[in-house]
Amino acid sequence: MNSTNYSKKTLGFHKKMRSIRVANIIEEGKIGGPQITIMMVAAALNKSFETTVIMPKQNSEQFQSQCKALGIQYHAMFLTRITKEWKVALGYILFSPFEVLRLAMFFRKKKFDLVHVSGGSWQYKGIIAGRLAGCRVIWGLNDTSMPSLVRTLFSFFSRYCDGYIHTCKRTRAYYAPYHKPGKPEFIILPPVDTEHFHPGRRGSGDETLIDQWHGKKVIGTVANINPVKGLETFIRAAAILNKKKKESLLFVIIGPVFHRQKKYFSSLTSLAAELGVDNLVFAGARKDIRPLLSSFDIFCCTSLFESGPMTLWEAMSMEKPVVSTDVGDVSTYVKDDENGYIVNVGDAKTISDRLTSLIDNDELRAEFGRKSRKTVKHYLDISISAKQHKKAYTFFANL
Prior knowledge:
This protein is an alpha/beta fold. It has helices at residues 33-44, 61-70, 86-110, 125-132, 148-157, 169-175, 207-212, 231-245, 262-274, 290-294, 310-317, 330-333, 348-359, 362-379, 382-397; strands at residues 20-25, 49-56, 73-77, 114-117, 136-141, 163-166, 185-187, 217-222, 249-254, 280-284, 298-301, 322-325, 340-343. The strands form 2 sheets. Strands 3-2-1-4-5-6-7 form a 7-stranded parallel β-sheet. Strand 11 (298-301), helix 11 (310-317) and strand 12 (322-325) form a beta-alpha-beta unit. It is globular. The protein starts with 19 loop residues before the first strand and ends with a helix.
């Protein structure tokens, strides 16, 4: 979810090699994990590859602004999206063929070597356009749950890509039955900038709000307000904990409420009221989450589906002890009872039990936090992701 502005210096990763022209296209303009990954990798590889980020004009103002600040080339164009809103869905059906042709013409004009289609299995326009333009095409897959119609479309259009970049092993396993085997595949997890998300770099801002939290044990999460994030579980776990020690606890959710999720947000506030969770703060979106994240005593991820929850990695990088549902490849990097706790999806009772263990033990929280940062630095830092993308891009460009 985090929409932090990353510095060019922090993301610098330079190694001389033949310049390869990459078009990285995503059909969702709002800032989220995939958009941040795109920018981080493009900035980190800006001496090895010439990347142009292609995004929709709609809802992408912040995305465009951050690309500009990082010196990343980008092109915003009219791109419709899949949605349950029938008017928008009708526009998607009517305009998609023209959008594909316009994309193909742009790819051919700019003479891209590679088209990297980010954002998931429903984003097939770049696949067709890249093939029409005669480019090598990589399909980036980053989820572990999609409706049957999307899986069917993916199964059909997957024949037109040259290979895949998966964001975790579970994503790879999830999509394996829907495409022909044998195409090259890479697994590259969403990265974290461990120098930016450093426990000694708290950032500035939100001092007044943080002062109000003084004396409380703060249990928080960072997520777009979206059903996939399982925030009902977060609230139910809070209700269970409140029965034990309500006066000493505060629960915080950092993240924007987009227009399409207002009804869901309303259901969350109603659930909190019904369960008497009046020590819950919806903090909204932040350009820099570090000041609030630094004030968390424990980070809690309650997602129903994830491939690699970037905000969890960021919290671990800030030396926060974590409790997370068993989604994506989280259990590979959060070892239960070693540097955090892993629980089953939707299990509010066990989440509350694990949170209690951490609330009552200052030394354990500190130990888990130190081990978590060490893990993230070793496996998930942006420099590692950049090297992996460099290897994948070079491989596909030379097929």
